[in-house]
Design goal:
- The chain is mainly α.
- The protein has 2 domains: 2-165, no CATH class; 179-351, no CATH class.
- Helix content is 74%, strand content 2%.
- The protein is built from 16 helices and 2 strands.
- A two-stranded antiparallel sheet has the order 1-2.
- Strand 1 (59-61) and strand 2 form a beta hairpin.
- It is globular and about 65 Å long.
- 53% of the residues are buried.
């Protein structure tokens, strides 16, 4: 057992929740952002501003035509796997071998491809690290083992993992359609808290394929956390804190939450209100890329995703047009209500003496 521990330590194989559930998951979200999400945004810009270069196919692969944005989106599997390999500190040969592994896992995982990539990439990366530099023919052995194991695991477990993720995501979306009030609260609060925690709400939404009303509730919850913390901590953090939390990440408050969990009350209660308002009153739906559901106001990606969904729905005939009520709902749910509600709840929390000045300083 001691020899195994020594070997794992030498290979930097740390079998832990932090390494896999935080580091790898967070990196996967970055990979998604740099491929699928950016591709979606490029396509939207091209369509809305009628930019010919962004609208016409620039490549044809297997009789499938790809625009600039389409190429970026098609590379989501390799991008996720490479990002996970980077987070797991893979040596170069293992890291580069993650590219075909990610493609295989994402393709075979179907709609639940991101979840399949997460599991397969972690296993392939750690096995590749274990083999790396253990033979005199490392240039052959390491890629052969990493790619071979990764593609085999993709064939073996990616389809059932993808189906499981799709089933769970569909269940959440079905339940939200059936019980929009209760599920609006549940999804908004849970995904919003995941955004503030050192895990990736974006990766979770992508893995489960959360769109529709459930995606809209997720946007509401994430926005409430980011805007909420930004405004209630303005006295301590001024404009820099407002920007870094409001369009950056509320994760900056994790240290303060650990020291005094009660600082989390106001944004979380705000998300419990905006979630059902999004699902029941404004019928806010995320029909863009699922990863956008878990981004909130980070770079306004959540709002861009909702708008992209509107554009796609109008183009397909599902939606007649984008109305003023649509815009009103998006602005209120994303910015106005989170700010007002969080300030009101925070005032009550401070009056009770649960939070004092300086508790939100970052």
């Amino acid at each position: 057992m001691d020899k195994i521990r020594a070997f794992l330590k030498r290979k930097d194989i740390d079998i832990s929740l932090k390494r896999y559930g935080i580091d790898a998951l967070g990196a996967m979200a970055q990979g998604l952002f740099c491929s699928l999400l950016i591709g979606t945004i490029i396509n939207t810009i091209g369509t809305q501003f009628r930019i010919p270069f962004l609208m016409v196919p620039v490549a044809v692969v297997g009789k499938v035509e790809y625009t600039v944005g389409g190429i970026a989106s098609a590379m989501s599997g390799p991008a996720m796997a490479a990002a996970i390999g980077y987070a797991l500190r893979c040596p170069p040969l293992v890291l580069f071998s993650m590219i075909p592994v990610g493609f295989a896992a994402n393709a075979l995982g179907g709609a639940g491809g991101p979840l399949a990539v997460l599991f397969v990439a972690i296993l392939a990366a750690e096995i590749g690290k274990a083999v790396s530099k253990e033979t005199k023919v490392d240039i052959l052995a390491t890629p052969l083992v990493t790619v071979g194991i990764g593609v085999f695991l993709s064939w073996l477990i990616a389809p059932p993992l993808g189906k499981a993720a799709m089933w769970l995501g569909n269940l959440i979306m079905w339940a939200t359609e059936l019980r929009p009030f209760l599920m609006g609260i549940f999804v908004s609060v849970i995904v919003g808290m995941a955004l503030t925690l050192p895990i990736s709400s974006a990766a979770i939404c992508a893995a489960l394929g959360l769109t529709g009303l459930a995606g809209g509730a997720a946007v509401a919850g994430c926005s409430a956390q980011m805007i909420g913390f930004a405004v209630i901590s303005f006295q301590e953090n001024k404009w820099g804190g407002l920007v870094s939390q409001g369009i950056g990440t509320s994760m900056l408050q994790m240290g303060n939450i650990v020291r005094n969990p009660r600082v989390w009350i106001a944004p979380t209660l705000a998300s419990a209100v905006t979630g059902p308002l999004a699902t029941c009153l404004f019928k806010l739906k995320m029909n863009g890329a699922p990863v956008s559901s878990g981004m909130g106001t980070c770079g306004f990606v959540g709002q861009i995703g909702v708008y992209t969904g509107w554009v796609n729905d109008v183009a397909s005939g599902i939606k007649a047009s984008v109305t003023a009520f649509d815009w009103l709902g998006l602005i209120l749910i994303s910015f106005v209500l989170p700010a007002i509600l969080s300030l009101a709840f925070h005032a009550a929390v401070r009056k009770l003496g649960w939070v004092k000045e300086g508790d939100l300083k970052i």
